[in-house]
Amino acid sequence: MKIGVLTSSRADFGIYLPLLKQLKEDTSIILKIIAFGTHSSFHHGQTIQEIKENGFHNIDTISSLLTNDDEQSIATSYGLTTIKFADYWSSHMFDLVFCLGDRFEMSAAVQAGVPFGITFAHIHGGETTLGAIDNVYRHQITIASELHFTSTQEYAKKVKELIGTNEKIYNVGSLSLDEISKIELVNQEKLRDQFNIPQDDYILATFHPETVGSHQNEKYAKEMASALQSLAEQFIIVITMPNADTAGSLYRREIQKLKESLFPEDIVIVENFGKKNYFSAIRYATLLIGNSSSGIIEAASFGKYAVNVGDRQKGRAQNDNVLNCKFDKGEILETVFKANELGRYQGENIYFKENVADNIVRIIKSYNETL
């Protein structure tokens, strides 16, 4: 069975990792990783190296990302990605191709495959993020896919609404949490040394632009920076930089300014942790802040509260560890201090299920036998 895996960023590669390991070890499967999007971007840490460092070398790379991140550049990148993948699908055949999530690059790659009859398996479909245009891209990917692996039953119902049938929808849980009980986290001292994190309590921050109502991002980026400036007086702030989204450079600029001008020692910027280091950073953090899906999906499994800012993740099912607030300095600070007083989160994670990768492999093999 020949399987392709589309990965467009550090984020989806980290989620894929348990599944990729299973596919690589299975002698009945020929695995090809198709890396594009930010993986080859020096500006985003050249994360193609992380794929190779994890032992995957059967990789095809496709470059289509523009440097700018305004609306016209994102739309042009979408078109260029579609053109590049039209060439790719015309000369590469697979029994099944995995796609994941909701990135615009992922949507472009999948849409290019529709005329070629590529069989796609979509992971993390059916979710809702009302503050991001990714919501549109995710549903496009779902409609173009043959198999669907959702992270909750609620999302499985949404997929059914989108495709009009119950068939080939599997609620397997969140793939990113699959090896959470097995992963060997990095020692705290080693993590701090590697990323120059001072020996004090730190908040782990990840902010992305809101791509619905994107005209507000300049204001939001300044509110974020102002809030982080106040928090840096009491905590170390470890910031993972945003992905390639519309107006992402606004946030990058404010973060760089904050570090260089005001808090060179107390603000730590990390372009790419890698999955093991990122999970370790969550484990040792006081709490999480931002608008990344990791606060919604993963933080609960590490007993951490997450302050979710703005509407980017609005509509996504939440655990009780998530505290929501607006892009307003005062409200952000109030919510962070409230979360800090709560200590360790003791509740469940609705996204967690056992043996996610095993179940996905079992399902695709069964599907392949029926063809």
Automatic annotation (TrEMBL):
| Protein name per UniProt | GDP/UDP-N,N'-diacetylbacillosamine 2-epimerase (Hydrolysing)
NCBIfam families from the entry? Answer: NeuC_NnaA
Q: Which GO terms describe its molecular function?
A: hydrolase activity, hydrolyzing O-glycosyl compounds
- Organism per entry: Fodinibius roseus
Lineage, highest ranks first: Bacteria, Pseudomonadati, Balneolota, Balneolia, Balneolales
The UniProt entry's GO biological process terms, in alphabetical order, are: UDP-N-acetylglucosamine metabolic process
Task: List each copy of the UDP-N-acetylglucosamine 2-epimerase domain by range.
Answer: 21-365
Top-level taxonomic group: Bacteria
Please name the Pfam families in this protein's record: Epimerase_2
